[in-house]
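Predict the 3D structure for this chain.
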Amino acid sequence: MNDAIDSRFLELHRVQARGAHRDLGRALGRWGAEACHRHLVRSDAWAQVMACRDRPEMPAMRALLHAAFPWIEEELAGLAEGLELPPDDVFLWNSRGDLWALAPDGCTTVLAPRRLSHNEDGDPGFAGACGLLEAQPAGAPAFAAFVYPGSLPGHTFAVNASGLAMTVNNIRARRAEAGMPRMALTRALLAAGSAREAVSILQAHPRMGAFHLGLGQTGQAQTWSVEFSRTAVSVRPVSGAPLLHANHAVHEAQQALPQVITASSAHRQARGEALLAQGAPALSILADTGNATEPILRRSPADTDQENTLATADIDLSGPIVRWAVYAPGAAAPHHRFEGLRRL
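Done. Predicted structure below.
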């Protein structure tokens, strides 16, 4: 791995929030407001998502969220207040992958027994503006998560006080019918006490968009590769050979899912599987640039999906407490270390 990293990629702000869910959302909004007004609301991605405001699915999406997770609705309201943006716009942005298959969210994950390793790929315009949130919501488990300005926590990588770890990969599903926004579902998972409970939450609600999750928890000998979409929640235990997941559904139960498979996702999946077959370590795979056009470690301003790797997480679930580290893209040494939720 390479230590010669552009300094703007090293910066992950420490964000701390506690209290009622509206307060947590407001704190996130205030932290992310500058980056959102400087970059996000001027971006093509924002314009694409805002153009979806009159989609016929919107009332049902809102009603489902209100009925099942009013506390997430409160977080979104607080987020809008802190961002000083219209609540409808913030709801739309946090439903982007449900409404638009080409939303700029990526990621690559290597799953092994008792370990999750993950490249967080997103909008290069947020390089240096993302954060590590340490949250203590009232009446819910504390958690730590990578956060983007303007977005709920839960759709990147995270660890909670129950010893649950989660990584999230975009799946670009097409023709979604009205359902629960996928980022609301993954936010709800941060309150789960176990991987089993997390899967139950996904199964209990009508889903709109699609995601891949890597789930793991302390005390368990395996991790789980989970793909969820409108039609199915598929779970593949990882108890032997490691698996790699890019940004398209690969489980047998999802083979009929209408989806966009970009060249980047296809090449990362193929290259990662080849490196796994050679016995390459997870962090070496995530730092790989062997395919110069479509590398796993994505740093190019000309990336074909308009995404770059903004951080790498390595989550060790082999002991009684989650030990995890966060690296700048391609760096040999971590820039942040945690035991559970305690920053070292």
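The longest strand covers residues 164-173.
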